Amino acid sequence: MEKIGFGVIGAGIWGNSHAWIYSTEPFSELIAVCDKVEEKAKILAEKYHARRWYTDPEKMLKDPEIQAVGIATPDFAHREPFVAACQAGKHILLEKPLATNHEDLKFMKTAYEKSGVRVMVDFHARWNPPLVVAKKNIDQGTIGEIISMYYRLNDTIYVPTQMLSWAEESSILWFLGSHTVDTLRFLSGKEVKRVYSVSRAEVLVKLGVNVPDIYQSVLEMEDGIIASIENNWIIPNSHPNWNDIKLNILGSKGMFNMDLTNNQAIERYLPEKSDHPDILVMPTIHGKPSGFAHESIRDFIHRLRTSEKFVVDFEDGYRVSKVILAIMESAKTRMPVEVTYNS
Ligand SMILES: NC(=O)c1ccc[n+]([C@@H]2O[C@H](COP(=O)([O-])OP(=O)(O)OC[C@H]3O[C@@H](n4cnc5c(N)ncnc54)[C@H](O)[C@@H]3O)[C@@H](O)[C@H]2O)c1
């Protein structure tokens, strides 16, 4: 079977994961890497033995050996490479969130609908084993009708202050809140109808990073489901894992409780500190990229090859961005906001 030729756009932290997988899976081949910073494109291309590197996505997209691209540019910079890939007829695995404003969403939807390319948005939590087990139970009716959901998904302060140079141009809602909303839609199979949110901007602003610390939001979903979500990126760096994840799903006949980070599957105690090393997200196992954050990329290659429906598609990404925009509007106006998907 022929290999699918891949290009990666955005040679940063997550572009590395894309390049690693495309260059090591049996049915994909890493043809080229593109980053607007040439040195980054060159280093990543050389690391994973890509044939070429580029600084201009449009130039790379003319490459006939490339059939699909992984786009891992910063949250606010997805539109330009996405639209260019649609116009070039390349299939797309786009990092979350799909887009961070209404105008980009509109442009991207038009480009996608005209193109005929296949698009997956990388909401990799849909491959997280505990969530998949819960989803299966929910679909089988094991816990009855969903009454409410509580989902707290937070990051350490390292992320906006040291890891992401572009934190101010994104927010914790885009960076993790988009996963939160997608996961609740995935688990319940229901859409968000109305939101109410409150946010605070204290800690990061004082550190010179001009972006809110936290959003606490209530989501009213179809069938009367109430969801409470918390997203902050100011938890102390001493936290035993870079994420703080707690999830509760209350059904009419049963309930799920999940502690996906501070669970006791593995605890490491060192002279000066203790932590909970990653076992689920992206551990390297016998030299290979493992964990659910890598599994989603692998699944994209697989479904592209077999023509199976993607687990998470353009419409999911579009709807999640619409919900996040409504949450932001609510936090700004301190009023409940109806989510509109058609504007
Ligand atoms: N860092 C993570 O843990 C993580 C995890 C999952 C998903 N993501 C998502 O992946 C995306 C990338 O995040 P990251 O952490 O890798 O960011 P990053 O800042 O490490 O890398 C982004 C790269 O994109 C390049 N770039 C920017 N605009 C470009 C353009 N127009 N054309 C070509 N290259 C361009 C930058 O030079 C940079 O090298 C984001 O949407 C993010 O939400 C990140």
UniProtKB/TrEMBL annotation:
The keyword Ion transport does not apply. One of its GO terms (molecular function) is oxidoreductase activity. It comes from the Bacteria. Residues 5-123 form the Gfo/Idh/MocA-like oxidoreductase N-terminal domain. Gene3D superfamilies: Dihydrodipicolinate Reductase, domain 2, NAD(P)-binding Rossmann-like Domain. It is an enzyme of class 1 (oxidoreductase). Coiled coil: none annotated. Its EC number is 1.1.1.370. Keywords: Oxidoreductase. This is Scyllo-inositol 2-dehydrogenase (NAD(+)).
